[in-house]
Design brief:
- The protein is α+β, with helices and mostly antiparallel strands and about 375 residues long.
- It has two domains: about 1-230, no CATH class; about 240-370, no CATH class.
- The chain has helices at about 10-20, 80, 120-130, 140-145, 165, 200-205, 215-230, 240-245, 250-260, 265-270, 315-335, 345, 355-365, 365-370, and strands spanning about 1-5, 20-30, 30-35, 50-55, 55-60, 85-95, 100-105, 110-115, 150-155, 180-185, 190-195, 210, 275-280, 290-295, 305, 310.
- The strands form four sheets. An eight-stranded mixed β-sheet has the order 3-2-8-9-10-11-1-12, sandwiched between helices.
- Helix 1 (about 10-20) packs across helix 6 and helix 9 (about 250-260) crosses helix 11 (about 315-335).
- The termini are far apart.
- Bound molecules: iron/sulfur cluster (2 copies).
- One iron/sulfur cluster (SF4) binds near residues 270 and 339.
- One iron/sulfur cluster binds near residues 262, 263, 349, 350 and 353.
Length: about 375
């Protein structure tokens, strides 16, 4: 373990840029923390924190000069690895009558992601499984992800809507990073650095660091322990798949659907949601056409359209599909939960629907138990 001085953060970003990375990191945009391209360390949100609750998000000042003293904002690294809109190809009828197609090249990267929280590391690894972890590799995702350099940041304070500890995805990053920083404010502003790869070690050597002392390691451990004990939410995951499968007809789905607006915010902010649609558009003259991939949401009526109509007509069916996929069918499909406990869907739901509360209510009123049937039957 090493220690990086606060003043070395800017040289760290410079070293990444010198190596050809496009540096993406947190900054303040439109009143929220957002992961955006950074041209300088001055754009980092120094002295900024956030206050989050169901349906509520606001930034506030903090007086300790912390650089990473906030939790997740609305966007995630998904916006860069799996962008909301992507042109796949364009076709054009030339004057000689020939139709010519141009495949769109990936324009970004290689990326250095600075400030990745442990829940988002888990989300990236879930999307890796979906897009590049099987026989059918998504070329665009692969090219964005392949050389991405990851600087993780361990959370010091849990947000009110966070529940990564329940999902076993945080608050401390375990692997999947090149460097992992824990920000230490007491006894001098500095970062404890864990090195996760050879290239991480090379970058750190360029920047300069010192060996960590036992007090640095102990301080970082205390930061992570404090954070884990402050989780704003909790989700009981034991047997959750079976719980949801046997409660497909639970009356709670009707109750939640009376509040749910089917706006799809929860799917847009979720760092693991991967649904997308493919649209073709032709210009009015009929000479140009483009195929575009766009994020889609299971809250849209068209999402489940099969010839003749949509399978999930009601808001109830769509909410149930979303939550059951996240917490149950995802496990059958990909071998893990589709939820990493980042809390974004709770914060950014306009009517404050809370996945942890919905799961807890269904557990507390488990239909099988309620009618006295043995769940093992
Ligand atoms: S749960 Fe909330 S965010 Fe999701 S679709 Fe319903 S109202 Fe929108
Ligand atoms: S379902 Fe909600 S809490 Fe879970 S990963 Fe998605 S946005 Fe985060």
């Amino acid at each position: 373990m090493r220690v990086l001085e606060r003043k070395s953060l800017s040289p760290l970003l410079e070293a990444l840029r010198r190596r050809g990375y496009e540096v993406i990191g947190p900054t303040v945009r439109d009143g929220a923390i957002s992961y955006e391209p950074l041209s300088s360390a001055d754009q980092l949100p120094v002295g900024v924190t956030d206050e989050q609750e169901g349906g509520t998000y606001r930034l506030a000042e903090r007086d300790d000069g912390a650089v990473f003293g906030f939790n997740n904002g609305a966007n995630s690294w998904k916006n860069h690895l799996f962008p909301p809109e992507l042109s796949l190809w364009k076709g054009r009828r030339d004057e000689d009558g020939e139709i010519r197609f141009t495949e769109q090249e990936h324009r970004g990267g290689p990326y250095a992601f600075v400030g990745v929280r442990s829940c988002d590391l888990a989300a990236i690894s879930i999307q890796d499984r979906v897009f590049i972890g099987d026989a059918y590799v998504n070329g665009d995702y692969e090219s964005r992800r392949r050389d991405a350099f990851i600087v993780a940041v361990n959370c010091a304070e849990a947000g009110n809507t966070c529940f990564c500890a329940s999902m076993d995805t945080g608050p401390r990053a375990g692997d999947g990073f090149d460097l992992a920083l824990t920000e230490l404010l007491d006894g001098g502003h500095r970062f404890l650095v864990e090195v996760g790869s050879e290239r991480g070690e090379e970058v750190l050597a360029e920047v300069g660091s010192s060996p960590a002392e036992p007090r640095d390691v102990a301080a970082a451990d205390a930061v992570s322990e404090d954070c884990a004990s402050q989780m704003g939410r909790e989700l009981e995951t034991d047997g959750i798949k079976e719980l949801l499968y046997r409660n497909v007809e639970h009356p709670r789905w009707d109750e939640v659907s009376e509040r749910c607006l089917s706006c799809g915010n929860c799917t847009l902010v979720c760092p693991t949601c991967f649904c997308h649609s493919i649209d073709d558009a032709t210009d009015l003259a009929g000479t140009e056409s483009e195929r575009v991939r766009r994020w889609d949401s299971c809250f849209g009526l068209e999402h489940s359209y099969v010839h003749g109509g949509s399978v999930r007509q009601s808001g109830k069916a769509r909410y149930r599909q979303w939550m059951t996929h996240k917490l149950a069918t995802w496990i059958d499909q990909f071998g893990s939960s589709g939820c990493v406990g980042c809390g974004r869907c709770i914060t950014w739901c306009p009517v404050a629907i809370d996945i942890t509360e919905e799961a807890a209510v269904i557990r507390a009123t488990d239909r099988i138990e309620a009618v006295g049937i043995n769940a093992d039957d």
